[in-house]
Amino acid sequence: MNGRQEWEQVRRGERGLEKSMKLLNSKTLFLNKGIREVIPIVLIIPSIIFLTVFIVGSLISLLFYVGNISYTFVEIVFRADFQTAYLRTLRVALIVALITTTLAYPVAFYVLHMSYKMRQIMKALIWLPVMINPIVRGYGWMIILGRHGLVNTILLALGIINEPIKLLYTELAMIFGLTELFFPFMFISLLSAMENISDETIMAAYSLGANTFRVFKDIVMPLSIKGYVFGVTIVVTGCSTAFTTPTLLGGPQNATLSMLLAEYVSILLDWRKACAIALIILATVLAISELASVIVKKR
């Protein structure tokens, strides 16, 4: 065998090896693609199992405890204490949503113009109340709003009132406590939405002669509406299901749905009606979330 034939054999061997490597690479890419597609499914399986067992299972158990659903719901809905608690819960939730909107929008817009470092510090400071134990936070408000608390002491010292006024164990006290609790959620939702607005858009508005108010009203608010709807959903649903803060600041005479639910479970021991109230709370929260989703889709 001469040198030319040996060279051709080597070349054929190299071409065969190259084809084998290409085939191996294509199979490896196919396997990697398959693994990448399978991994998310595998990772989500524990969450699906958890949701199925603990949420769907809980709903089925609630329906089991309720028994005759239509009769139990009619029995609950037409009770005066339920109607009062339901309306109070929605009223307090909407008022808190309005107050947090009024406070969070300008604060978020102001923080948006800070440096990155200062913005992170402000986020941490505003988020601080959420990290405090709700019982500690509730007792703090009781000290401030009590008959001999900080507010009454200041009003008496200024001569605005002649005797202490009742602030504690009222809807107003509940609104104060829930506003402090859910303001950070509204703030973070709005700030996150505002951070997605490009700086060029805002600078273009300023360069065209718009003042800060016009930029806020015509640019920032319309472009942050999705974040606002998300924040309102969290605030309203959170207020509808809150228990510790309304109990400590509102008292039993200002019962909300969560407090009424606890009363039926721990005092009256009527699990059937308690389960019906729990389902009504869940339906209310889901309706609010669905309404928010519809609003976002229309935008």
Describe the overall structure.
With 299 residues, this protein is mostly helical. It folds into two domains: 1-66; 70-298, MetI-like (MetI-like fold), CATH 1.10.3720. 84% of the residues lie in helices and 0% in strands. The chain has helices at residues 3-66, 69-77, 80-112, 116-131, 134-145, 150-158, 171-195, 199-207, 212-223, 225-241, 244-250, 257-266, 271-298. The termini are far apart. The model has no long low-confidence stretch (mean pLDDT 82).
Can you give me a brief rundown of this structure?
With 299 residues, this protein is mostly helical.
Write a concise keyword list for the protein shown above.
mainly alpha; MetI-like fold; globular; 2 domains
Helix coverage percent: over 70%
Secondary-structure-based class equals: mainly alpha
Could you report the average pLDDT, rounded to the nearest whole number? 82
The tally of helices reads 13
Element layout with pairings:
Blueprint: H1 3-66, H2 69-77, H3 80-112, H4 116-131, H5 134-145, H6 150-158, H7 171-195, H8 199-207, H9 212-223, H10 225-241, H11 244-250, H12 257-266, H13 271-298
Helix pairs in contact: 1-13, 2-13, 3-7, 3-10, 4-7, 5-11, 7-10, 7-11, 8-9, 10-13, 12-13
